[in-house]
Amino acid sequence: MHSLVKLLCIVIISVHDQSGNFPDCKSGPLSAQQRVADLVSRMTIDEKFTQIVTTAAAIPIYSPGVSFGGDPPAATSFPMLINLGASFNMRLVYHITSVISTETRAFNNENRAGLNFFTPNVNIFRDPRWGRGQETPGKDPFLTSEYVYALVQGLQRGEDEHYLKITADCKAYNAYDLENWIGTDRFHFDAKISDQDLVKKCIHDAHVASIMCSYNSINSIPSCANQFEIEMLARKELLDNKTIVEKDIDRALEHTFNVLIRLGWFDSPEQQFYRQLTKADVDTPESQKLSLESAQDSIILLKNVNRSLPLHIDQLINKKIALIEPTANATESMQGSYFGKAPFLIDPVTAIKAMTAGKLIDVEFVNGCKIKDPDESGFSAAIELARSADIVILFGGLDQSIEGESVDRTSITVPDILLSLIHQLEKVVRSSIHVVIISGSGLDLTYIRVSP
Prior knowledge:
The chain is α/β, with parallel strands linked by helices. The chain contains 14 helices and eleven strands.
């Protein structure tokens, strides 16, 4: 007992002795910069090293990623970013990302999500063969800049302006639009660009909390070691030293801890609005309605022969509808290259059958072929179904085996197997084929567009 009391006295005296060194808060709350400087100044060099290496223990509130499958089991699922770009509706982008940040906070309050999200992808979709173009809003620089601004605002700002809601991350900074193309991969690609091409909207206008340097080099300098790009353009300051010294480590830590303080990591949860969000704020009816609206706004009608669309239910009574192709029953592939757990997935076949249920409408489905497989053995079943149908809807496109991270295409043409099937179906159908393309990047649809 005597030893325990003595130990407690030592601790109390030690803490009391340091109290005079704490910053003066009487004149009002300290800024994030002041709090960071004080925190880093109290760390030993060994403690500093543990926080800057890649093997540092994860800080739960800051670590990226979401753990699905618990309670709540899923989050609201929204269309891919290429869809949002096609909508040209930045109000949608802002409201969608506001929902995402709200649900992220709710997951974080259950210790099942971090608050640092690796988005937006700020690169321009210059070449439709790039596998990750689906993660961008498209090829237009102005549209991309407006989209980036709306997205960052929706993620980082909210009901409580005192704190960041979550942190966005401009990636991959910069000039990244190649995965693996004819012998050159993203780790060895050297982008030759001018200063005008460098992305600034995300950093200087939207005030994004973090950036991720790209895999490639820029004008022969690796992006992550490009002092002009990272220091002058991103941080507007230069390193004074050519070697790493303790003040360089301090500065690196200050960038990290500054974000943590702005997220509210060091403050009492009771005083923070975002820390009160719960599973009741996840996948709400309003969020589902927003998801549907954004999907509808992103659909592009390329051609409408004789105004045959839209199809009205009453006019389909006693008719037979043929649904053909593998993307007609696509589920996960509809979500693109990156996605979490959706509360539900409704593929086109399921949706059309649900809409026509209880009516005298015959809806039948066959695959016909696979997206990447040259096997034509399913053609006969598709041809017979099309021959007997009043309406034929063919669902084509691409999937992640053809486009995605680390996978570039070498052509923008429609897969040969799909064109072959279309040629065969055209010989037997009673009316024009309705073609629906589901893909994350552009395809040359010239034949489909000019075909009667």
